[in-house]
Write a structure and sequence with these properties.
374 residues, alpha/beta, Aspartate Aminotransferase, domain 2, Aspartate Aminotransferase, domain 1, 13% strand, globular, binds pyridoxal-5'-phosphate
């Protein structure tokens, strides 16, 4: 057996769409870009969408579009992919961490207010592993203190709260399309917003600071090359057209795991959807119970890999990454819930094409290895 941790769901439709673009002269800045953006905005339920070449570039442009810079603070979570904190640092702003909730692994909304200072400009919540943050509470806090919100929805396409989609609860939000995501464009990201100015800024900055209609060598502001090619957009259009099918398949795999793993009392399973909250499954992450050490978790991972099962630690705490420790002086114990969760989590193989036999193989081996390591 060799079961990878993740894998894209690509059909002949995606291949045909990419090949058709290759047969044209518009490989970039062609018609597929606005088509993908229009489809995406309509799926999420927002006025504007700006495609970019990664989720990281999307987050960077949101920080810039909101005017966040030197000396400003952005409140966010230490339990995430590193880009959600780095994006503040790109502009000389400081990511200020708030510990997470042990049940959802998302930023603990009850601990946000105590971190607000006169320098705080924005809150950047991350819908970790596709489970939405409490955006109602976060919006109340932001409103009370006059703060902006950037939603990192990179892992949460299709998730919703009370029927309203993740990505619609903020000034601007970002989605990402790396191949391990629910839908992919190879590399890619999307900024969504109802604010025309933010959209125009994002579209200008992704294209070397050119404004709409300007010539190739005319630049109104500092910009970047964060463009997404028409090849990627064509792939995105087909994947987005299949999004309900893609999300349903992921739900089915999650259901298979929920059943197969339910008898292992040494692990806590990830929370699913409720009447109010719809989860979008990005990864399937189990957590060992409190009596397991980080060393035991690491040993379990090595043993799973030795049996051909792709798995990983999701996520190591951002504040303990070497350059965060060096720059901000963070140390172990600063964010105890994050550290505790982070030392016991294991992401196991999770993608649409995972078969029932493979789910059984992973689950049986996980159960067996946990007993061995105990
Ligand atoms: C929460 C989160 N934020 C940001 C990103 C960055 O996206 P990308 O890898 O497309 O730059 C990712 C992607 O892995 C992510 O999971």
């Amino acid at each position: 057996m060799n079961i990878p941790l993740s894998g894209p769901d690509i059909t002949a439709k995606e291949i045909d769409a990419v090949v058709s673009v290759l047969k044209t002269t518009s490989l970039s800045l062609g018609p597929k870009l606005p088509e993908f953006e229009k489809d995406f905005a309509s799926y999420i339920g927002v006025k504007n969408a700006a495609a970019v070449n990664s989720g990281t570039s999307g987050l960077h442009l949101c920080i810039k579009a909101l005017g966040i810079g030197e000396g400003d603070e952005v409140i966010t979570t230490p339990f995430s992919f590193i880009a959600s904190a780095n994006c503040a640092m790109f502009e000389g702003a400081k990511p200020v961490f708030v510990d997470i909730r042990p049940d959802t692994f998302n930023i603990d909304e009850k601990k946000i207010e105590e971190k607000i200072t006169k320098n705080t400009k924005a809150i950047l919540p991350v819908h970790v592993f596709g489970y939405p943050c409490d955006m109602i509470a976060i919006n109340k806090i932001a409103k009370k203190h006059g703060l902006k919100i950037i939603e990192d929805a990179c892992e949460a396409i299709g998730a919703s709260i009370g029927g309203k989609k993740a990505g619609t609860f903020s000034d601007c939000s970002v989605f990402a399309f790396y191949p391990n995501k629910q839908m992919t464009t190879g590399e890619g990201g999307m900024i969504v917003t109802d604010d025309e100015k933010i959209d125009a800024m994002a579209k200008s900055m992704r294209n070397q600071g050119r404004d709409e209609g300007m010539g190739w060598l005319a630049h109104n502001r500092l910009g970047y090359n964060y463009r997404l090619s028409d090849i990627n957009c064509a792939l995105g259009i087909v994947q987005l057209g299949r999004i309900n099918e893609l999300l349903e398949k992921r739900q089915e795999v999650a259901d298979m795991y929920n059943t197969a793993l339910s008898g292992i009392k040494e692990i806590i399973l990830p929370p699913g959807s409720t009447d109010e909250i719809k989860r979008s499954w990005f990864v399937y992450v189990v957590r060992l119970t409190q009596d397991f050490s980080q060393e035991q978790r690491n040993e379990i991972i090595l043993k799973l890999r030795a049996r051909g099962i792709g798995c990983n630690i999701y996520f190591p705490p951002i504040h303990l990454q070497p350059f965060y420790v060096e720059k901000f002086g963070y140390k172990e114990g600063d964010f105890p819930v994050t550290e505790s969760v982070s030392s016991r989590t294991i992401a196991i193989p999770f993608y649409n094409k995972l078969s029932k036999d493979e789910v059984t193989y992973v689950s049986d081996n996980l159960a067996e290895i946990i007993k061995e390591v105990r």
